[in-house]
Design brief:
single chain, 183 residues, alpha+beta
Length: 183
């Protein structure tokens, strides 16, 4: 039986990512995935730019893409898009990787390589690290699943039915049709 080699946060942070691969750390295990494709990146950039434009007119926080967050002693995740409330970055060394806390909102764009059980583990890790919401966006189906702490079943929204990307507690007044993100 093969044994897994588990990494520490320090060992993870010292790794060099080869071209075309991305790393995350889940309960000490190195997760290696291929770099995202064109469609994935377009959706990420579209959502990121719309959130940034909204945040530029308010002082609610900041949005980042592909940033490593330390969710636990042996967990580092890299959401496709993440929102961090204002004030949480004060006193934090912004040169360090990973950031020493989880995002307030994590958005993952689901790729064909993603497995359901891995996605659910990732969602639970974000929520346990203090995320107020986690969104899984499915480009092929136009579906979005919203997970929040303490609620077992996700809210499901669809681009076809006019579903919107909204997070009123974190981003009051922000509303973006899923069709504009996933289209």
């Amino acid at each position: 039986m093969a044994t897994k080699t588990l990494l520490t946060i320090e060992e993870y942070a010292a790794l060099d990512e080869p071209e075309g691969l991305r790393y995350e750390l889940s309960e000490g295990e190195l997760i290696v995935t291929p770099s995202p494709n064109y469609i994935h990146n377009k959706i990420r950039d579209r959502l990121n730019s719309r959130l940034q434009a909204y945040l530029d007119t308010r002082k609610l926080g900041d949005v980042v893409s592909e940033m490593d967050f330390k969710l636990a002693d042996n967990v580092v995740r890299r959401p496709d898009v993440a929102f961090i409330r204002a004030g949480r970055l004060h006193g934090v060394d912004l040169e360090q990787v990973p950031l020493p806390f989880g995002p307030d909102l994590a958005v993952e764009i689901v790729s064909r390589n993603d497995r359901a059980d891995d996605l659910m583990l990732k969602v639970s890790q974000y929520l346990q690290a203090g995320a107020q919401a986690v969104w899984l966006l499915y480009p092929k189906t136009g579906l979005a699943y919203r997970y929040v702490p303490g609620k077992l079943e996700p809210e499901v929204r669809t681009a076809v039915d006019g579903g919107r990307f909204e997070e009123p507690q974190l981003l009051p007044g922000f509303s973006l049709p899923l069709a504009e993100i996933l289209g």
